Every structure is written in structure tokens, then in C-alpha cells.
Amino acid sequence: MHRTILAAALCAASTAPALSEAYMMGTGQWTCERARAAFVTENVTDQGQVAGWILGYWSHASIDAPKALLDKMQEVGPAKIIDITLAQCQASPNARLFQVTEAIFQNSLKEETEGEAPAE
Fold first, then answer.
1. Where in the sequence is the signal peptide annotated (predicted)?
2. DSSP state of 117
């Protein structure tokens, strides 16, 4: 059975940590409604910005992530990460893209690290 990396995150994006919006630049500041609109209107430029921002965020956030999460990210692939993010955005249209992306990443990290033995 194929399990997605982000299954638990879909219902938990509203629990994103409080981040200062002052330093968040570009597409990460877009509302979810605006990010999703790029795909509804088929605006290729905006689609590229949204996809690039989401994947860039995941790439940076995963620098020190456990191997289990990195393996799961590779298994799931970039298209599915973007799809899941946009699906969560549909449920939270007024949220900022960075908030939803961060919540999904944190929940995925938690899911992959639960039950692991503590590092010595």
C-alpha cells in the first residue's frame, strides 16, 4: 500500500508555528487562494513560482532532516508534494503559502521520526 508522506498533514496545516511574516518574501507570502488560482487559470509563470517556492522550501527545510524523511520525499516526489500543498490550500484559502507549507513539512517530519530511537 502506497502511503503518502503528508497524510497526517492535510488536516493539521492550521497548526503552523507562528512565524514572522516580515522576513518572508515572494510567493511564500501569497495567500493559498492566490497560489491555487495560478493552477486554475493556467498561468504558467505563477505556477512555476508556486511550485518552485514550495520545492525550494522543502529542499532547504530538509537539509538536516532524518534519512527516513528524505527517503519518503524521494519516494513521493515533487509533484505529489505540490499537489498535497495545493489541496491543503483549498481547505485554508486565506492562509499564507508559507504557513501551509511549514505545517505540512513539520507534520511530515514528526510522522517520520515518531518511534525512532533517540540519537546518542
1. 1-18
2. P
* Exposure b/e, 25-50, CB count within 10 A at least 16 = b: eebbebbbebbbebbeeeeeebeebb
Global confidence as pTM: 0.77
Only one residue has cell 490550500, namely: 89
CB 99 within 8 Å of CB 19: yes
pLDDT at 26: 87
The one-character DSSP state at 98 is: H
CATH number of 28-109: 1.10.890
